[in-house]
Amino acid sequence: MTTEHDQDIATLRAFNRLYTSRLGLLDAAYDGSPFTLSEARILYELANRTDPMAADIARALRLDPAQVSRTVKRFQERGLVAVRESPAHGRHQLLSLTEEGGRAFATLEASTRMAVGRLLESLSPFQRSRLLAAAVSISDAFEGTEPEVRLRNLRTGDLGLVAARQAILYSSEYGWNGDYEALAARILADFHQAFDPRKDDAWIAEVSGRMVGSIFLVRGEEPGVAKLRLLYVEPDARGMGVGQRLVTTCIARARALGYERLELWTVTALTAACRLYRRAGFVMTGETPNHRFGHDLVDQIWSLRLTP
Predict the structure, then answer these.
(1) Whether residue 86 has pLDDT greater than 60
(2) Are 216 and 259 in a shared domain?
(3) Into how many domains does the chain fold?
(4) Residues 138 and 156 in one domain
(5) pLDDT tens, 177-192?
(6) HEC profile for the chain?
(7) Over 60: is that where the pLDDT of 1 sits?
């Protein structure tokens, strides 16, 4: 494997092999029933839809319409499915389960629930929790809409999470040592102890209930000056407009609180953040070489005038 994309493909294929093996999806008969997996899925659709057509089931399952038609015909021959013409369109055939078909589905459903239940019971509570959370995430990835970025105010536990995530990310991406974590923790502790809603604010960015970024508005030492602090965005949320939303929200709040100027400190290594500040109207007002977090860096001060 030479690229991250190749590794992603291998990971998903490995999951697919494990999943199909553990659930017995490759068995000729599904869960010991007289049905194959595709037949079982078609039977499920018939049981959970009102008068569907074969084409409806084919679209829902992404199966070849001819395959669905052949399966429905076999179900008819076994007395599991009844077919009638649509009152609205004589050429359309509506499908429904017979009493025998209903009993067959009930037996299959009970068997499937039992098999999945046994699988879950074989796992420890920690494994089970991880499996179910992953199942929800996979369903959302395939069927959910584009995740929405939501900004909220702080909740208990957020300060520790922000310090931890930033320290982990900057260590991973830039090799920074624990000095940055200590700095972030001090900034957050000071913010909490001195918080004044008339002068300070903070936002957590969330996607699907998960924290993916943060920003803090803190009053400065000079009258009329506020500071933008601790902006960050999780790697997999970059490109979704999270950073821009956070910065725009912070600027708007600083104006609403009557600040005349908004300042921030950063380093040149954080190039994406610097581009974001420049687009928002900040101007870089000073640079100073420094040794921080185990590296030789260049500090920068950026400033944005909030009043005409």
Answers:
(1) yes
(2) yes
(3) 2
(4) no
(5) 999 999 999 999 999 9
(6) CCCHHHHHHHHHHHHHHHHHHHCCCCCCCHHHCCCCHHHHHHHHHHHHCCCCCHHHHHHHHCCCHHHHHHHHHHHHHCCCEEEEECCCCCCCEEEEECHHHHHHHHHHHHHHHHHHHHHHHCCCHHHHHHHHHHHHHHHHHHHCCCCCEEEECCCCCHHHHHHHHHHHHHHHHHCCCHHHHHHHHHHHHHHHHHCCCCCCEEEEEEECCEEEEEEEEEECCCCCEEEEEEEEECHHHCCCCHHHHHHHHHHHHHHHCCCCEEEEEEECCCHHHHHHHHHCCCEEEEEEEEEECCEEEEEEEEEEECCC
(7) no
Same domain, 155 and 226: yes
112 shares its domain with 51: yes
Task: For residue 297, give its domain range.
Answer: 149-305
Within this chain, do residues 195 and 76 fall inside the same structural domain, yes or no? no
Q: Does the reported pTM lie above 0.90?
A: no
Chain segment 255-268, per-residue pLDDT in tens = 999 999 999 999 99
| CATH number assigned to the domain comprising residue 88 | 1.10.10.10
